[in-house]
Automatic annotation (TrEMBL):
Naturally occurring in which organism (per UniProt): Acanthosepion pharaonis (Pharaoh cuttlefish)
Main location: nucleus
Official protein name in the record: 5'-3' exoribonuclease
Ranges annotated as biased composition (Low complexity): 920-936
Biased composition (Gly residues): 937-947
Taxonomic classification: Eukaryota, Metazoa, Spiralia, Lophotrochozoa, Mollusca
Amino acid sequence: MGVPAFFRWLSRKYTSIIVHCVEEKGKEIDGVVAPNDTSQKNPNDVEFDNLYLDMNGIIHPCCHPENKPAPQNEDEMMVDIFAYIDRIFNICRPRKLLYMAIDGVAPRAKMNQQRSRRFRASKESVETSNEKSRIREEMLSKGYHLPPEKPKESKFDSNCITPGTPFMFRLAECLRFYIHDRLNNDPGWANIKVILSDANVPGEGEHKIMDYIRRQRAQPDHDPNTHHCLCGADADLIMLGLATHEPNFTIIREEFKPNQPKPCEMCAQLGHEMKECTGLPKEECDKPLEKLMGAEQEFIFIRLPVLREHLQQQLRMDGLPFEYNFERALDDWVFMCFFVGNDFLPHLPSLEIREGAIDRLVNIYKQCVYKTGGYLTDSGVVNLSRVQYVMSELGKVEDEIFKTRRIKDLEFRRRDKERNKRLKNDDKPKWMLAGQYNPAPVNSGSNPIHNPRQTAADMRRQIHSPHQNQSYANSANVSSKMMHNPDAKRKFYNNEDDDEDEPEDDVKLWEDGWKDRYYKSKFNVDNNDIKFRHQVANHYVRGLCWVLRYYYQGCASWKWYFPYHYAPFASDFMNIGDLSNEFEKHTQPFKPLEQLMGVFPAASRQFLPPTWQRLMIDDDSPIIDFYPIDFKIDLNGKKYAWQGVALLPFVDEIRLKAALGTVYDDLTEEEKFRNIRGNDRLFVSSKHPMQSFLDSLYEGSQTDRKVQLNTKLSQGMGGAVWCDEIAVLPGHTVFSPLPQLKDLNNNQAISVYFKDPTFSEDFLFPAKILPNAKFPPPSIKPDSYRDYGNNRYRPQLGFQRDSGYRDNKDVDAMVRMIRHHTSSYNQQTPYNDGRGRNPGVMIPPTAETYGSARGGYMGRSGGNWHGGAGGSGNFGKGNYYGGGNRGGGSNTNYGSNRGGWGSNRGGYNNPNDPYKRNRQGGNQWEGGNNWNSGYRSRGGGGGGGGNQYHRGYY
């Protein structure tokens, strides 16, 4: 969904919803990695029933990855997609169902966003190509050395990942072979059902999945405690998962790591951008141009039951005049998230998620529930009179929001310019090769760690990662090139783009008259045309109703779309309570090739039939205005082009289909086949209880007869099945579509067409918890956590409270080490009671893993962590490992008096001071032999004489 900051905001606000995936790696035998037995217990301490794959989130990173060399051809892309699915399957290990959903033709409301994205990608590709050619010619003229250019035909156009293209048709064929292969050969697949919904089946991938879940929940034999796991990176998957009201719903996605280095477009090396490139050494130019291999992407789980717990606390409303229903409040929260952005509507100008927009809406919402006596939504239907209250209250503070935003923006720009000036000073850090024992710049410091336990787990995985050495090699390669190339280093630190001028903004929302200027600039209407403003707001309200219905009931209309590029203001929503919630019924989606004509720019026309291509480029084409070569991108107050609004003309469906009617007869048989609306396919192996039942469908003569599934055999799954016209029956050979993979002889799997259960047109899927549904035990700290004994509560970090994820001793040890070595604890150490004037400077150990490091504590006197006789108060400068300072004696906690840090505990009982700063009760804190017998050491005499630096860490 179009909320770039939503997941970042959510994961920072509710950190406990994230769990890092435990992934078992196959054992390497004679250079060959043996696959894991996925029929064994899941190492994540959880067993999933159903795994759903939003396939477009897999296809794109496999076809044009950012952290490794791109595949050379389509065959390699297919193999990479297979490997990605294997990896997700190995992590999740579903026991009942694997559902693969590829994006099919989308509703018109989504096609506008797809059209904007593809036109923008084509425009940026042309601009980048021209810029590369210009820079290349300039560099060669100056004598720089560059590798040879790739031939133009080898460039992959990601626009082909769209329904109706030959690429998507071949992908479906390859996935059918892949499914047959795994069902025949992988024991983890033997007892599961597999559904493939390819690009010829209409609907977005994630909404096909949600439609399946909704319809199965309405079946009488559905298990209400099914554990769902959905794989995808879109932020709207979180809202979709919450909207199911399933008690066990988890999302798996790639871990997002911001500010990852990207290779230069000219030389494919890290450390600089294309415009800063100075080429390669001459001897390297004849080698193939390849990107450096990045670290393997890791995965995280998002635990929606834990998110529900957090939202239950945030949305709590006491004293209502009616019974509080959290499920209704949760639906309202999902609805309000649409206001800050989605794929179908532009977000309201006054709402930015980084400014706390959702929290602001929640506060207004609670007032609304109290004052209006009810909720905003009910099973996907909006109560517009109550939404009017929310909009009115938000409209009252719009002016204040815009002015506050301006003040903060100016302050940010001021700080940013000051930072850039400091970097350009002559005394900026002189960088060296960043290895474990290399010093960092003196003024670099280190970033505070907000979740030490989780960071410890990250460090542990990185230490054992097979890609660690490759990462060091990459950084060494980059650093060495910069050391031998002063021009590159100079350009790196004098990047003038950091001081870009403020983008032009003729609306100036922070100044009086902002609304008049906005409508004049964005809609080109007169200031006194108030009726038009209300018209835009009414269309937007209709859009909110359509989006909510889409999330809870399915697509209300395939034809509806918001007909403007910009949103109205909250204060423009007037008298919306009487607007209709209904949409045109019995609408149909575009066919695949028709959608290509609706979303593709002319630059991607090669994926269309020849006569269809002419409609995109001929001057006398009746729809040539749908395909502008150049178009304006309105930054709309933003800084970067990708944040702006692409001002493209909207496609008129009637004109488009009229023009296509003249060229439909030119389609070949293959093109006609790619243009049909397809059906889902269901696959099972010979070991599944349904195999005999499905095999019997092919014994009769009526191959198109639809038969209802026997839910006892299908593990409660309902729906209709009938013969697949291209099925490969058991005993036959499944021919490989890829040259590097062998044919599958004596196939023992079977496939049939599948259709979800059908319901009457006026049926409403209830948004509620099903009877007998059981939620997992609570994970977060309850309000009455004192009831848990000793006033202590330990959060649950994994899927089970007794999970090995939490009790891993190595992780606990690293937590302690991180706390010793991060600047986030510097504020707890300003004690100067010992001999040294300063307590010492804590500098973390390694730049690569633990932050910018120096390798130990730098105190006033000598000695090592494990060496020497101790100093006058601090650990000495030097190495980590040595003689005997940390290691003598037999006591494990602060010397011989474990209970009270010395003999006079009474002087440290100030309840308001967590670090026991009240020292008047005794002298053991100041130079005694008990508390100061070593920094959480094993006793002994080292570290004595006033170890004031070491208190308060545990």
